Amino acid sequence: MKNVQLSITLLFCLILAQITPSKAQLIGPRVSQKSSVTQRIGITDITIEYARPAVKGRQVLGKLIPYKSRFPWRAGANENTTVQFAHDVFIEGQLLQAGKYGLHMLPAKGQDWTVIFSKKNEAWGSLGYNAKDDALRVKVKPENRSTHQEFLLYHFINLSETSATIALDWDKFRIPIKFSIANPQELVINDFRSKLTGAYGFSWQNLTTAGSYYLKHNKYLKEALLIADRAIRTYPKWDTYSLKSAILRKMGRIKEANTLDKYKINTIANENELNQWGYYLLNQKKFEEAIQIFELNVKKHPKAPNVYDSLAEGYMMKGDKKKAIRYYKKVLNMNPSKFLKNHASQQLKKLEGK
């Protein structure tokens, strides 16, 4: 009987030994609650999953997070803190391929910390950490914070179109990890190429978004011109023609761009579009050209008070006080909206010195 009990006990111990922390499934509420945060940079998603320990009045640096330990810090609590990048990135200037990584840190008192991205991401904390699994190590400088952060927090700061900083805040310190997307423009353009071959390509808004991106970054302008032509065939309006003329201008095909602009101004533009174009020229200090657009708008829409208000402003900015006064008075004689009436009245007071 004793032998049977001993065998059962040994078997139970063996089973327990095989249930390592990384495999154990914990139930019930945890002290350090699970959390996650996702940020999109361009078209790349970055997701961090972690647990949030609290300070609870304890000394964090040097105690809860020892400076010298057999294992690196798990950069959170419980299971691995993980960070996942949908596309290749540069971490502090070093390339890291797309994937999901276990995040570990080697704290150093008064020195830069080492941040470790491990190919193993399912361990319990850092107990199973092995340096041979490192995908990347980088050095970062810890920062002091003026405010207290009770629960450990990951968030994204310093966001731009192609980069950001992962910030770990806890107690009164911050660990910032800078990253940028590898080849971001090519990544976006390849995404456009893929999507525009399907249902997305039937939308003129999607086509102009893609063409505008090519134009902004001065990439593949011949391809951008074909996209603009597709947009015009789908929606032959001001926005699509404006995109094509801008691309032509960027390519140095000025004569064609001017011809297209003349066509869209005289044939396609509505009152609001002409007005916006006039103000665009006005802001470029191209007063004569702006006034020509405003006069064309008056000719096309002689019963609209707003076009006379814009023409008056054009003359005022040019320095032609007499004509500015004339057209502001014209606005007041046309039963304008309350806004236009107030605007014209205020401008007249300034011009007439009242």
Overall shape: elongated
Number of distinct helices: 11
Radius of gyration: 32 Å
Strand order of the largest sheet: 1-2-3-6-7-8
Poorly predicted segments: 6-23
> Which structural class should the secondary elements be placed in?
alpha+beta
SSE layout:
Layout: H1 2-18, E1 33-41, E2 44-52, E3 81-85, E4 89-91, E5 94-96, E6 99-106, E7 113-118, E8 134-140, E9 143-157, E10 163-181, H2 184-196, H3 204-216, H4 221-234, H5 238-250, H6 254-268, H7 271-283, H8 287-300, H9 305-318, H10 321-332, H11 338-352
Antiparallel strand pairs: 1-2, 2-3, 3-6, 4-5, 4-10, 6-7, 7-8, 9-10
Describe this entry's structure for a reader:
This protein has 354 residues and is α+β, with helices and mostly antiparallel strands. It folds into three domains: 30-181, no CATH class; 183-268, Tetratricopeptide repeat domain (Serine Threonine Protein Phosphatase 5, Tetratricopeptide repeat, Alpha Horseshoe), CATH 1.25.40; 285-354, Tetratricopeptide repeat domain (Serine Threonine Protein Phosphatase 5, Tetratricopeptide repeat, Alpha Horseshoe). 43% of the residues lie in helices and 24% in strands. The protein has eleven helices and ten strands. It has helices at 2-18, 184-196, 204-216, 221-234, 238-250, 254-268, 271-283, 287-300, 305-318, 321-332, 338-352, and strands spanning 33-41, 44-52, 81-85, 89-91, 94-96, 99-106, 113-118, 134-140, 143-157, 163-181. The strands form two sheets. A six-stranded antiparallel beta sheet has the order 1-2-3-6-7-8, with no helix packed on it. A four-stranded antiparallel beta sheet has the order 5-4-10-9, with no helix packed on it. A hairpin with a 6-residue loop joins strand 6 and strand 7. Helix 5 packs antiparallel against helix 6. The longest helix is centred in the N-terminal third of the chain and has 17 residues, at 2-18. The radius of gyration is 32 Å and the shape is elongated.
